Amino acid sequence: MVARLNRGPDPVRARRTVKTLKIDGLDVSGTDEQTILEVARENEISIPTLCTIEGLSNLGACRVCLVEVGDNGKLLPACVTLIEEGMSVNTKTPRIIEYRRKLVELLFSERNHICAVCVSNGHCELQQLAEDLGVDHTRYPYVYPRLGVDASHREMAVDHNRCILCQRCVRVCDEIEGAHTWDVMDRGAGTRVVTDMNQRWGESTTCTECGKCVQVCPTGALFDKGKAVAEMEKETQFLPYLRTMREEE
User: Fold this and answer.
1) Quick one: 56 and 108 in the same domain?
2) Tens-digit pLDDT profile for residues 2-60
3) Distance between CA atoms of 139 and 54, rounded to whole angstroms?
4) In the chain, how many domains are there?
5) Which residues of 99-121 are buried (b: 16+ CB within 10 A; e: fewer)?
6) Which is deepest, 54, 70, 126, 212, by most CB within 10 Å?
7) DSSP of 125-138, one letter per residue?
């Protein structure tokens, strides 16, 4: 058995300072490396998000976690905004709720989300968020893009019609598995997640077939083959554990 060396206190942790702030009028505190979202969750204040998941880096891709900060109500993503001393944050104003509704409606309108025939029906984070916000229709015209399904992998498949570009698959493949099979191609309305250099998934030479990307996907965009409607349930409990093990190596 190899004994761990006692290197003394972590100088980085030693420099961290406590900051106090208000979230929805509640006095809370956190350390200077924490985000608004992290402090809110520690104090059981709910802020929705689709791209953030414990165990992966924060990206701010979905913007669903927008909050109002300061007297002028500046809109900032809670998942990537660090707390500051004396900061005042509002998470549930009518303006914020309306922004979140619009964002969810846009996510539904820009792809082809047909919940009734989706493998993640009833287990989808986008679907649940829409229900929580009371979104039962969209005020925006549907784009109806012609997107494909890549089922070339022997165990898993990707349906781009259901992708919300949260990039969880990209981050878990890079940060946890270390393969970096997934990446993002193009920009704007043409943005897609791709494997390797836009190869078919089944032809990838870097994929380890670990399935982590499938488990962190918030919708039915990534799924295990053989799953029928509403059968695809995701498991993400492994992420914080694997992140901790990586940091201790």
Assistant:
1) no
2) 343 444 455 545 577 999 999 999 999 999 999 999 999 999 999 999 999 999 999 99
3) 32
4) 2
5) bbbebbbebbbbbbbebeebbbb
6) 126
7) HHHHHHHHHT--S-
Domain that holds residue 228: 97-248
Q: H/E element holding 110?
A: helix 94-110
- At residue 79, φ and ψ (nearest 5 deg) are -75, -20
C-alpha separations of 33 from 113, 167, 222, 241 in Å? 37, 23, 32, 20
Residue 159 within any structural domain of the chain? yes
pLDDT (tens digit per residue) in 157-213: 999 999 999 999 999 999 999 999 999 999 998 999 999 999 999 999 999 999 999
- Count of residues in the chain: 249
Rounded CA-CA distance 26/208 in Å is 46
